[in-house]
Each structure stands twice: as C-alpha cells, then as structure tokens.
Amino acid sequence: MFNVAFFRRLAVSVLMGAAVLAGSMTTPASAELRIVIRDPNLSPMPFAVPTFVARNPAATDLANDITRVIAADLSNTGLFREIPRDAHVGRIDSFDAPIQFSDWTAINSRALITGSVLVEGDGRIVVQFRLYDVDAGAPLGEGLQFVGTADGWRRMAHKVADAAYSRITGEGPYFDSRVVFVSEVGPKDARQKRIGVMDYDGANVQYLTSSDSIVLAPRFSPDGSRIIYTGYESGFPKVTVIDVASLAKRTVGGVDQNMSFAPRFSPDGSRVVYSAEVAGNTDLYLLDIGSGSQTRLTSAPSIETAPDFSPDGSQIVFESDRSGAPQLYVMNAAGGEGTRISFGEGRYGTPVWSPRNDFIAFTKQNAGRFHIGVMRTDGSEERLLTGAFLDEGPTWAPNGRVVMFTRETAGANGAPALYTVDISGRNLQRAATPAAASDPAWGPLLR
Amino acid sequence: MEKRTAVAISGAAHAGVLVWALLAGYFSPVEEEPPIQIASVGIVSEAEFQAALSRDPGPAAPTPEAPAAPEVQDAPETPAPREEPAPQPSPRPETPQTPPPDAAPDVAQLVAPPTTEVVTEAPDAPPPPPGAQDAPVSPRPRPRPAERITQTPTPAPPPLVETAPDVEVATEPSPEPPVEEQVEPQEQAAPEETTTAETTEADTPAAAEVEALVTSLAPEDSPRPGRRPNRPAPAQTQTQTASAASTAATSTETATASAPATTPSEPRTVNTEDALREAVAGGGSAAQEGPQLTEGQKDGFRLAVQACWDLGAVSTDTLRTVIEVRFEMRRDGFPVSSSIRLADSRGGTPASTQIALERARSAIIGCARQNGGYDLPDESYEEWKEIVVVFDPTQRF
C-alpha cells in the first residue's frame, strides 16, 4: 500500500546526492579549462613556389624548369598543394629581397619557397633557395646553395624539394633517388623484359640489359652501385649482379645447376639472401659475397622464398607455405624455423622490411583481389593500402613513407604499371614510365 | 474524563486511519476489469457438421469492384539490349608487336647519375617583416585588412655568407624557435581553396562515396556567430546568495533558482570519455566566480581550434604523437602567445613532438586571429583564463 514510486524516487535522489557529494570531495580544484581534440585537418598544405630568379639570362629556362620540378615533387606527395602562380599576389624579383608575408597569407599560402639560379661561365649551375613559414613570418631553416653540372639540374631541384619536404613534415627525404624496374614491351604472351633505371619521378630512364632474355626482380645494392636480379641469360634462372657503372655482369650463388632466384642484398651489401630449389624443395640460402661461402637458412619441406633483411641485418622476413597457404615469417638472419607473423585471411607474399624498421609491406590475395598492405614487424596493426585486380611487389621509398608497387590490369590487353601510395593509404598515383613496367625496387638516396 | 480521552484517542486514530486510507487511494474507485468476452458455443453432431459442409454457400457476397484495367497506351519504345561490342583489340599503350630484341643493352646514355655537388650554404634570411612580435594586451581588437604589396622599396638583406665549395650540405633546420607570432586579428583576405578529399583505396567503395559526397556538400566556411551577450542576472544572484547566505531557506531557493544557469541546457555532443575528463578536470570550477561554461560553449571553442589544427603535411610519427598544450587566455578571447607550452606528450619522438607542438601552436594562435578572438563569455573568464588542450590525432592514422 506504500507509494513505491515515491520511495524509489527518494532513494534515487539520496544516492545521486551522495554521488555528487562524493564527487565533489574527490575532484581536485582546478581553474583551467580542459579540451580534447581528436580530428585534425589532413588536407594538403598550400604552398607557393614562385619561379626562381634567374641571375643571368642563361639561367632563365633552367630557373623555370627547376621550379616546376620542385613544385611537382611536393605536390605529388599528396601532402602539399601548390598555389598556382597566377594566384600569387606577391612577386619575387630578387632572391635577397625581404619577404612581404602579407602577400602570401593573402592567398592562404602556408609555406613559401624562393630561389635563384645562376649559370656560371664554366657551365656549372648554382641554385640557391630559402624556405619560409608564412604563418610564423620567418624562415624555416637556413638557406641552401647547390652547385652542379647542367645535366644534373633535376637532381638539384630534387634536393631543394627534399629539403623543403623534410623541414616541413619531419620525414626523411626521398625525391633525389632512383628506381630500378623491369620494362616490359610486346604482347602479354611474349613480353620482352629488360632492366631499367629511372629517377623516382620517371625521368631519365636508362636500360641496363637487352631484351633478349628474361629478367626478374631487380634490387639495388645498399650503396646503389650494383643491381642484383634473377636472370635467364643461361636459359636457367640464376642470381646475377650487374655493376651500374660498367654494366659488367656476373652470376653469384646458386647450388650446382639448380634454380636460384629472389635475391636481396643485406643492409651492408656484403651478403645476399636468395631462394634456391634443390631436389624439388625451395629453401633460403645466404651467400657471403666476399668469400663465396653459402649457408642454408631453412630446411622445411615447404617453399620458402621472397626473403628480405631487416634494416639492421639481424632478421629476415620471408614467405612460406608451410601452414598450407603462403604466409609471412620472421627468422634470425643466421637461420632457423622462423615465427609466423601473418594471420589474416588470404595469402601473403613478397614481404619488404621498411627502412625505418617500423612496418613490413606485403602483397595479400584475398577474395579474388590483390592488396598492398603494411603490418608491424610483429604482425600487428595490419592495414591494407590498396585493392585491385592485381597489385604486388611493394618496395619502400628511402624514407619509409611511400610504397611503390606493380599494378596489372585485367584482360588480354592488361599491362603492368608502377604505382605509389602513401603509407596512410592516401595519394595513390601512377608513376610515369615510358612503357609497361613491373617489379620496382627503390634505391637509396643519391649522394 | 477518561472516557472523553479515550474517545478523543479513538477518534484521532480513526481519523488518521481514514486520512491514510484516503491518501493511499483506498477509497478511490477501483478500476474495473475489462469485461470478459463471452461467445456462445453450440454443440453439433457430426452429421449436422457434414450437412453444413455440403450445403450450398448461398449467394456470394458482393465482391469489391475490380479496378478498371489501365488504359493501354503506346509503350515507350523499349531500348533494345545493347549488344556487347565484339571484342576488338584496343589500342595498347605499348608497342603491340614484338620489337626486335636489342642487339646490345641500350646503355649509350648510361652513366652514373650526374653528381650534384651540394655546397654548404647558409645565406642569411631577409629580416622578418615588421610587427612580428606579440601584440600588446588591448581591448577587443578590431579586424584589420590584410596588408598588400608594399609600394616602397625595403632595405636589402645582408649579403650571402661565403660558401665553401664542394662541401656536403648541412640540411638540419635551424634550432632557433620561430619568431613569436602576432596575435592581432587579421581579416581573412582570400577564401580557402578547395581541398582534396582523400580516401584510402582499401576503403569500401560505399564508404568512400559517402565520404566524398559529404565532403562535397559540406560548406567550406560559415560566419562566426556573434558574441553571446552577457548574462549578469544569474551571476549576480549566485554571488549575492553566496555572500549573504543568511538563512538556509534563502540559500536553498537561490540554489534552486540558479541551477538552470549552471546546468547545460544544450544537447551534449561530447563523447563519454570527454565528459569524464571534463567532470574530473573541470568539476572543481564550481567554486570559481561566475557561471560555468556550457557544453555548447566548450564545444564551440573545441571546434574553433580544431578547424585550424592542420596535420596534412606531417610525418607519420607526428600523427602518432599526442600532446597536451597549456596556455593562458586574455579576457578579450586571444591566447597569450608566449604562454603556449607543452605540458605533456606521449607516443612520439622528440622531433615529432616538436612538430606537433608547432602545429598546435599555429592552430591556437591562427584560429584566434581568424575569428577575432575565441567566442568565450566574459563572465566565465575565471574558468577559461587558463586552458589545456589535448591534441590527439592517433585515431586518424
């Protein structure tokens, strides 16, 4: 007969009052406002790069070309957005003139790159540049000057862009680097392949081999002076090293007359890890280039291939089907069974260790699609960056921020091409190549 | 006498019982149960049942008139199924015919990459423009138009430092902190250009399309609402009540009356974690003078800073760095630039933390400049005169 609702409300009120009282007793007195923000703006940073000042008439065209390469380098990262020159309010007529930052804030430019180009009497060119933080109204870092030959003007442009990129983002540089790849021409069932080398942006393509034999999976040595690949010059797959300067080739490693393939240099360039098929079983082998001695690293009855060293050379990540389907494993560089690190659905392959030692990039095939993905070196935090009919063979930029890979289109007329993607999964772009291309491998920063 | 007392007690008891029964609703009319539906049931024999089954159904019930058939009109010409085009060899981006193999490697131009002799150079930067110092504290500053190109020549900077040829560049940025930014409000002179909507290819197509659609439809900018007018009445009531506190009844009434002013009346949009943080960190502000900020006002400040928090061009390490920035605010809604400092950080390297702090600092100062100061109520200044902002981008990477 008691009014239950009344007593229920009374009890709730008492409890709430007690809770409030307890809360007020335990809450520290504070006179500050605390705000948590979790959603940053990730749109590209607008920047302005007025045409570099030509310090003499001979430098006019060069100044324009260098400026365009710098702008393209930064814009292609997806992290920056160039403000068109037509929209510029201010003009840079002299490299040493003070900057009127209001001219650049007026067009919402966050960064400003100025520079000058001089062609000296001996043909050498001098490029100067400065980077400004428009918001702060101050230079960002010191000014730099590069001197080089006229045919190296693209490298100087890349170096300017590298400096600006690194100062603003905090990432390492990668524009002044080259990529080795397999150029492919001809119909799909009769492709002719040869090894090509190009600037990271597709310029200055040069070919190192003829197209009279098959070449696969070229990789730069750590210093960029050599390229190792799987060659069929003898009609049989063999690990081959070619000297970039002299084009001298030699076959290395291998077990008797068995197939050897998928070679990778160690970070110090003194060793090569590769796969070899012996008596129908494919395992990993380690070759000491200096002594020629070889060590068998795995002995499982399954197929072990696609090895790659960790940046410190102490570990090797590789692909094995010992669990029934290709998965990724990490083992000590001295050999052993290895520890499986991939556990997702599908098939994993072609692992590549990031030069920053933070991620491993890989190819994944699942549900009829191919993906390029990254995961931590222990297999955690797996993320897929791409998805297409056929994506495979990732390679890291020298700074570990960008991944290049091969994407092949479907159909009889399908052809492979090179693509890049930011490690965040944004900014997927096709790399410019003169013909179809596959198997890219990013080289080190040029010196 | 005793009998009268007994009668009184008995009467009082009966009256009490009657009152209790009255209050308890004992005499209230009892809700009648809904009447039970009763259906009469007859018993029939099997013969009667069979007879009933075989009986004619009788005249059919009138059926609803069927709607008239729609008038047949000339049907629009049905497009003939498009014939699959006969497979035709599409033009290939590459040479369709096998070229003759190269007799020799095409290495005519193959040389080592041209050496760029990078020369160490540290030319002095031109002097910063005038007015790059902290603006003095002033009453609510007025937006001023952006400066335009100067018409008068400015003095040239000092000449470049002599370079040492053929020396590798030291590309480390200058360790010196950037010049203190000016806090004066500046009118937005040019609209923000269209930004690129980026989606991860691995994302589901539907999600990507939705995101692109939302991005395309979202307004790029909106005018800032005007400053909310002061509300002195509740504050005065609360202050006066706190100072007087003469009687418990008065205090109770005042507290009740002022409760709506201190209770968030706007719908909350913060998540549970934020609410808990605010409850822990801001709960003690009840002892401050003036009314507390509403959740809407806090959200307004948070959104204002967030709009300028730009991490579009930072390292992945920076995207994993959480920093806690503490700074002081002036009563006119502008931050004190020199007071912005790193209070805590986690998940990053020293370099990424430094970049994260610079971006946070730029957001705090830049948004105040763009908006003519943050829209915070003057009467609650004691609560926001010192602000801690946690910048946590980890969910975006």
From TrEMBL, chain A:
It is found in: Periplasm. GO terms for cellular component: periplasmic space. Keywords: Cell cycle, Cell division, Periplasm, Signal. Residues 1-31 form the signal peptide. Residues 33-138 form the TolB N-terminal domain. Its main location: periplasm. One of its GO terms (biological process) is cell division. It comes from the Bacteria. Pfam families: PD40, TolB_N. Belongs to the TolB family. NCBIfam families: propeller_TolB (TIGR02800). Part of the Tol-Pal system, which plays a role in outer membrane invagination during cell division and is important for maintaining outer membrane integrity. The Tol-Pal system is composed of five core proteins: the inner membrane proteins TolA, TolQ and TolR, the periplasmic protein TolB and the outer membrane protein Pal. They form a network linking the inner and outer membranes and the peptidoglycan layer. This is Tol-Pal system protein TolB. It comes from Jannaschia pohangensis. The lineage of its organism: Bacteria, Pseudomonadati, Pseudomonadota, Alphaproteobacteria, Rhodobacterales. The gene is tolB.
TrEMBL record, chain B:
The chain crosses the membrane at residues 7-27. Residues 86-103 have a biased composition (Pro residues). The keyword Mitochondrion does not apply. Residues 68-77, 104-114, 185-212, 233-267 have a biased composition (Low complexity). This is Cell division and transport-associated protein TolA. It comes from Jannaschia pohangensis. One of its GO terms (biological process) is cell division. Residues 52-271 are annotated as: Disordered. It comes from the Bacteria. Signal peptide: none annotated. Keywords: Cell cycle, Cell division, Membrane, Transmembrane, Transmembrane helix.
